[in-house]
Specification:
Elements lengths: L20 H46 L5 E2 L2 E3 L1 E5 L2 E16 L5 E6 L6 E2 L4 E5 L2 H37 L4 H33 L2 E3 L4 E5 L7 E2 L6 E16 H4 L7 E6 L2 E2 L1 E2 L3 E2 L1 E7 L9 E9 L10 E7 L4 E6 L11 E6 L2 E6 L1 E4 L5 E5 L6 E3 L12 E2 L6 E2 L5
Parallel strand pairs: 1-25, 2-26
Antiparallel strand pairs: 2-24, 3-19, 4-11, 4-18, 5-7, 5-10, 6-9, 7-8, 9-11, 11-17, 12-13, 12-16, 12-18, 14-15, 16-17, 19-23, 20-21, 20-24, 22-23
Helix pairs in contact: 2-3
Length: 409
């Protein structure tokens, strides 16, 4: 009887004779990597070739620019002569022109306070006083000493006269007459000492009253009477706000335009600060320090401003303009002449070559540059210079339409 099972040495129907699935996946991955790597190599090669081409184009452009007849055309402008009344921005903080901490010269019991916080006082007004009982007793004692010295001096003067009379009649001796004269001199000296003691006692009693040394506003007062105060202890603070001091700084260039006595006008934004009765609030420059602050590179300036109505507040930060005394000559130029990256440099075209020139200027209307120093009216100034412009660059000034006065190529 035959069996249905195949022999062991013959393959059954379920066995595969082809490559396995894992080998196929590995082959496909290798092929994909080869394709991707080839693409990356071609991309890198193309980028390198493009960069080389770009460099070659730049080199060719530079070579052509250096050749005669291949220079860059530029627009130039000449400054328009004009006059300008200097106006320098001046910002700073307002403070009283005079202020002081006030206290007694001597110690004592604070007896009475005569003013209150915020009160306006005149010069010489009584602010407070100390207990005067001891000082009054010292004055009375000194006055009594004067009266005693006066009596002693009168007796000594009478004795001197009698001694002199006896000596003239031959009844006295020179020694007794001299003794009487010395006695009178001694009592006269004691009289002078008593008078000095009285004056000292009176001064000490006067120091028990604290007076305002100038007119102003009280901004600090003691909490109450009855306390013992020490000499020099600050009890009151007095500010004279009738005139305020404006302290601030200006730039090094602007400092050349500011003079002592120049008019100062207060501003708030683009508007003037005015007084209904007197118009714009103005003052004058009182000090321009002859040096630059090394930390800020600015020049300290001070001004005084009348404040009769008290509308200006001490400690406030304000904006002001310093007006010049007379107009000065300037050259008016458009703002496009300034070299990018520079604060005060322009490029001048001379014999078709560029030359840098530093200028001193002030801002004018519509952003114009008002050049005070550094340029002449017949200088051709390059319009819109690039940051890469260098001294000696060859240019053609026959560019687009000129601004201001046309240049002669």
């Amino acid at each position: 009887m035959m069996s249905d099972n195949p022999p062991e040495n013959e393959p059954g129907p379920s066995r595969s004779r082809g490559p396995s699935f894992g080998r196929i996946v590995a082959v496909l991955a290798v092929l994909g990597f080869v394709v991707w790597f080839g693409v990356r190599v071609r991309v890198a090669t193309g980028a390198r070739d493009a960069l080389a081409t770009e460099r070659q184009q730049f080199a060719e452009a530079a070579r052509k620019a250096a050749e005669p007849g291949q220079v860059r055309k530029v627009a130039v402008v000449r400054g328009i002569p004009d006059t300008w009344l200097p106006s320098v921005p001046f910002d700073g903080t307002l403070s009283p022109v005079q202020e002081a901490d006030l206290g007694f010269k001597i110690s004592g019991n604070l007896q009475g306070i005569r003013v209150h916080l915020g009160q306006g006082v005149k010069s010489g007004a009584l602010l407070a006083s100390l207990d005067a009982s001891e000082a009054s007793a010292a004055v009375d004692s000194a006055a009594a000493q004067i009266r005693a010295s006066e009596a002693q001096l009168l007796l000594a003067q009478d004795a001197e006269r009698r001694s002199a009379t006896l000596l003239s009649r031959g009844a006295g001796t020179p020694a007794s007459s001299m003794q009487a004269a010395q006695q009178r001199a001694l009592f006269a000296a004691q009289m002078d000492s008593a008078r000095a003691q009285l004056h000292l006692a009176q001064v000490s009693r006067a120091n028990l009253a604290l007076m305002a040394p100038f007119g102003g506003v009280i901004t600090k007062v003691p909490s109450g009477a009855g306390t013992i105060v020490n000499p020099g202890q600050a009890l009151f603070h007095l500010q004279d706000i009738g005139t305020l001091k404006l302290a601030g700084t200006v730039g090094e260039t602007d400092a050349r335009l500011v003079r002592v006595g120049a008019r100062v006008v207060l501003r708030s934004g683009d508007s003037l600060i005015t007084d209904p009765k007197i118009g714009p609030r103005t003052g004058k420059i009182t000090a321009v320090l002859p040096g630059v602050d090394p930390a800020t590179r600015r020049v300290p300036v001070e001004a005084e401003l009348p404040n009769r109505d008290g509308a200006l507040l001490a400690g406030a930060f304000v904006h002001a303009l310093v007006e010049g005394e007379a107009p000065v000559p300037v050259l008016r130029l458009p703002p496009a002449v300034l070299r990018p990256g520079s604060q005060d440099e322009v490029m001048v075209v001379k014999e078709r070559h560029l030359f840098p020139r530093r200028i001193t200027f002030a801002p004018g209307a519509a952003g114009a540059f008002l050049v005070l120093k550094g340029l002449l009216p017949d200088d051709d100034v390059m319009l819109g210079p690039s940051a890469e412009a260098r001294e000696g660059d060859l240019v053609d000034p026959a560019g687009p339409a000129m601004i201001g006065q046309e240049s002669t190529p």
